[in-house]
């Protein structure tokens, strides 16, 4: 049986392992940590359970597809519910807005709270759908680095909508053109942060993201986001995938420009015809492939933003909060200037609070809540994080206390913190960037590393640092593209 190795048990690596096992390979997954998940992991603290990384789940069909591919029924392993309320927004001027998933309901709420006609909001969401449908089949579902992609009929579908794709303008400029209300523009601009980018630089093509939430829906997995990784690992193991933990890959072995296997930290040499790196592509080249000339232009693309997260056990309930809550800054432009130009944290950051105990009460003790409190921050470039964490903690507490009209600090019973240095240490993500390279320019999609390299036969790449990008759905799609690229084991 031909052998494949996947380096890293992040969501992309787990999905790739499933696809290769279904294809007929004997698959080993080497994971540096003592468990799977990468950024998608969990921990418990004083009776509170926290999803450590991702909290928003869209496109669940990409998870379901893996079970179907393996001939299983997804709901036997993994259940999720569609959210009626996606996000509770708190604007700096005191306005509160509930973002319902259903477009008509959302548009009615925007009309009532922000005095923007519901027809305009609905029209915007229809346009968002058109951008998604014109671009996704080519830019997300296929390799951008193979001629076949450009010969497919899908490319033709983008032609009629080219003027709408917004390739020559920024998200913010496009949103400002559509809406005068600064609050609604801020709400729409926020979608740039879904892949760690800056709405004042990222192309307006990213205005396809609202379609994912408001037309296709946002979801909550039973048991929290970690349940996605758990259920997929269960499936992978049933398919015979072998997970080796505390087994850091140290070198990808090659001979005559072909992969032959991997050497691990335990000095074990594991042979394989196929190697898939789910490790961030920068350390993959720098650490595991020292013999290869690295694609410097690609590796030096600007990194996405990172995050600073405070995980708080809160010993009271806040009825006005939902699963996802956003407390906006007063001036978004200044906030993004701090992140991307000054490479520091704004003194008035937008604060995101995720509370899974709203839907999974077992995640917190009785009458308590598990708060995941996150601000977008620059990736690590040597800042004094200890100081930034200290200052930002005070800013965040004061901001939330003002918005919720109560001293939040008084209810924090336990705390854990994750900053860009911790994110890099725990997941090997270069500079602690959450989504690999940023999408802050119009060529970003083409400058991300492909899912293969023409320099080494048998070597592939998946996960958030390579095409098509970061975030759970795109990592799953990267694994799908790898699954399509890898030849069948019976091929010569
Ligand atoms: P990673 O999660 O990066 O895992 C890589 C794995 O490789 C790790 O387990 C690591 O230990 C292992 N590894 C590295 N080097 C080696 C080696 N040499 N040998 C063996 N193993 C190695 N996405 C969303 O869709 N929605 C969200 O709401 C969201 N919010 C986020 C919030 C935070 C705080 C973070 C950190 C991320 C968030 N994301 C979100 C992004 C999402 O989590 C990631 O894009 C995705 O989980 C990355 O998966 P991956 O496949 O790239 O692997």
From TrEMBL:
Domain Amine oxidase: 11-481
Domain of life per record: Bacteria
GO BP: any one term: carotenoid biosynthetic process
Keyword annotations from UniProtKB, A to Z: Carotenoid biosynthesis, Oxidoreductase
Matches recorded under InterPro entries: Amino_oxidase, Carotenoid/retinoid_OxRdtase, FAD/NAD-bd_sf, hydcarot_desat_CrtD
Gene Ontology MF terms in the entry: oxidoreductase activity
Similarity section: Belongs to the carotenoid/retinoid oxidoreductase family.
PANTHER family: 4,4'-DIAPONEUROSPORENE OXYGENASE, PHYTOENE DESATURASE
Annotated protein name in UniProt: Phytoene desaturase
Organism: Adhaeribacter radiodurans
Lineage: Bacteria, Pseudomonadati, Bacteroidota, Cytophagia, Cytophagales
């Amino acid at each position: 049986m031909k052998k494949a190795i996947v380096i890293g048990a992040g969501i992309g690596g787990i999905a790739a392992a499933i696809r290769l096992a279904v294809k007929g390979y004997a698959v080993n997954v080497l994971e540096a940590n003592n468990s799977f998940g990468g950024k998608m992991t969990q921990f418990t603290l004083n009776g509170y359970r926290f999803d450590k990384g991702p909290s928003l789940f869209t496109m669940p069909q990409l998870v379901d597809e893996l079970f179907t591919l393996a001939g299983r029924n997804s709901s036997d392993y993994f259940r999720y519910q569609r959210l009626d309320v996606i996000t509770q927004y708190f604007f700096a001027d005191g306005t509160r807005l509930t973002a319902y998933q259903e477009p008509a309901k959302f548009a009615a709420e925007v009309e009532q709270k922000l005095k923007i006609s519901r027809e305009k909001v609905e029209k915007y969401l229809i346009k968002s759908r058109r951008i998604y449908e014109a671009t996704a089949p080519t830019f997300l579902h296929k390799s951008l680095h193979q001629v076949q992609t450009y010969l497919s009929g899908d490319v033709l579908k983008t032609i009629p909508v080219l003027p709408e794709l917004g390739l020559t303008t920024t998200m913010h400029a496009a949103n400002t053109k559509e809406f005068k209300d600064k609050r609604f523009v801020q709400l729409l601009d926020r979608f740039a942060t879904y892949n760690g980018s800056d709405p004042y630089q990222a192309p307006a093509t990213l205005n396809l993201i609202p379609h994912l939430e408001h037309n296709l829906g946002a979801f909550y997995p039973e048991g929290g986001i970690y349940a996605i990784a758990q259920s997929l690992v269960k499936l992978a193991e049933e398919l015979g995938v072998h997970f080796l933990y505390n087994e850091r890959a140290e070198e990808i072995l090659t001979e005559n420009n072909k992969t032959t296997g991997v050497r691990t930290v335990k000095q074990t040499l594991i042979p394989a015809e196929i190697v898939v790196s789910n490790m961030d592509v920068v350390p993959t080249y720098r650490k595991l492939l020292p013999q290869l000339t690295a694609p410097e232009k690609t590796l030096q693309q600007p990194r996405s933003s990172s995050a600073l997260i405070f995980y708080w056990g809160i010993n009271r309930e806040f009825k006005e909060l939902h699963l996802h809550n956003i407390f906006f800054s007063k001036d978004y432009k200044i906030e993004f200037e701090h992140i991307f130009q000054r490479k520091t944290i704004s003194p008035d950051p937008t604060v995101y609070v995720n509370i899974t105990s709203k839907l999974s009460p077992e995640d917190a003790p009785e009458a308590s809540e598990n708060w995941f409190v996150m601000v977008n921050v620059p990736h690590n470039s040597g800042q004094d994080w200890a100081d930034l964490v200290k200052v930002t903690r005070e800013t965040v507490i004061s901001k939330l206390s003002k918005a919720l009209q109560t001293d939040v600090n008084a209810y924090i019973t336990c705390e854990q913190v994750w900053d860009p240095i911790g994110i890099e240490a725990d997941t090997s993500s270069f500079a602690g960037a959450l989504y690999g390279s940023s999408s802050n320019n119009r060529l970003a999609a083409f400058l991300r590393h492909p899912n293969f390299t023409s320099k080494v036969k048998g070597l592939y790449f998946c996960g958030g640092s390579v095409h098509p990008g970061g975030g759970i759905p795109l990592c799953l799609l990267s694994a799908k593209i790898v699954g399509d690229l890898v030849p069948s084991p019976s091929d010569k």
